[in-house]
Amino acid sequence: MKTNTLTLTAMVSGLVTLPQVCLATDFRVMAWPGYVSDSAILEFEKRYQVNVELSVIQTDDQMWTQINAPKGKAYDVFSLNTAELQRYIDNNKVQTIDTVLIPNHKNQQAPFDELHSIQGLSRNSQLYAVPYTYSEMGLIYNTDEFSKPPDSWNILWDPNYRGRVLAYEGSVHNFTLAGLSIGIRDPFNQSNEQLISSSKRLIELRRNVRTFYSSPAQSLDYLINEKIVLAFANYGSQQLNDLHKHQLEMAYTIPKEGALAWLDTWAISQSSPSRLLAHQWINFMLSTEVSEQLTREQGLANTINPNKQYFKNDNIHWLQPVENPQLRSELWQQIQQGVSEVSFNP
Fold first, then answer.
1. How far does the signal peptide extend, from start to end residue (predicted)?
2. Within a domain: residue 234?
3. How many CB atoms lie within 10 A of CB 33?
């Protein structure tokens, strides 16, 4: 994790002061790579006199396992996309959120100023998460290999690039991408027959894949050191930011079928004993300073200065809850293990 030096004055300025109440000695956070900087942790610890324990997750499958671990750590807050949020609400894994305790929400710009109008954040008029960042998941390609951007996701399956494709580790997005590539009308909600077709498609993709990555840092390492010419960019603009920083002969495009996109949020775990402190964390992460640091250091969009045109792009497919995430995970495990045909037991 990269550290950016922010002075106490800079971090505190612009924040609305909430009660300086310490409800716990330890405050546990689960987040995606790059979402929480070292300097943000140090400042929050100073401000609220707590010890922040950060766990970095790299796939939705991993997050679900850790939140549901019977003897695992009790997390206070965690970041997840709006599609994944639905099964956490279904299984009573998240608390409701009171925006009165998050005064920095007033700095969030359209479309994030009307939280109840954003699909997936609310249920029965109760708010369960607050937006933090977002990105589409495009296609990375080697500019030495391609004189113009590939125009279709099907390029990932081209046998000419066998052993030169970099794929993401997570199960849910891969099945959606496979469905998108073969023209399934709703790749988020696939029938059993469609899941079998997507499984076959992913088995074909595996033959082209050199390796799988789970984090932006791991992706960058493979792009630098392996003979990769194509990659599915699960972290989107965060990976594009790395390409620019390291001046790689790589570029980024959105194919004609469109790109999947996620809206990541902060949610409060049902197991958190520190409801007020959890709200204070979300409020802190929505400060102008922390939001702008996220964009400056990670290349990720923030909700304080959003790109409003982004949400008018018809070629963006915002993530939706999928038909059976557990089944997708089980099928994906088989595919990674090298089966030629999945064993399907819905």
1. 1-24
2. yes
3. 18
Assess if residue 155 is contained within a domain: yes
Is 11 among the domain residues?
no
CA atoms 106, 109, 110, 116: torsion sign: negative
pLDDT digits (tens, 9 = 90+) for 304-338: 987 655 666 678 999 999 999 999 999 999 999 99
What does the pLDDT average to over 279-298?
97
| Residues in Cβ contact with 114 at an 8 Å cutoff, skipping those fewer than 6 apart | none
Full residue range of the structural domain in which residue 28 is found:
23-134+262-310
Answer yes or no: do 33 and 170 share one domain. no
- Does 39 share its domain with 96? yes
Structurally, how many domains does the chain consist of? Answer: 2
Q: Which of 10, 95, 3, 89 is nearest to 288 (CA)?
A: 10
Report the candidate in 262, 270, 328 with the shortest Cα–Cα distance to residue 83: 262
> Model confidence over 151-170: pLDDT tens digits?
999 999 999 999 999 999 99
User: What is the model's pTM?
Assistant: 0.89
Average pLDDT of the residues in 74-103? 97
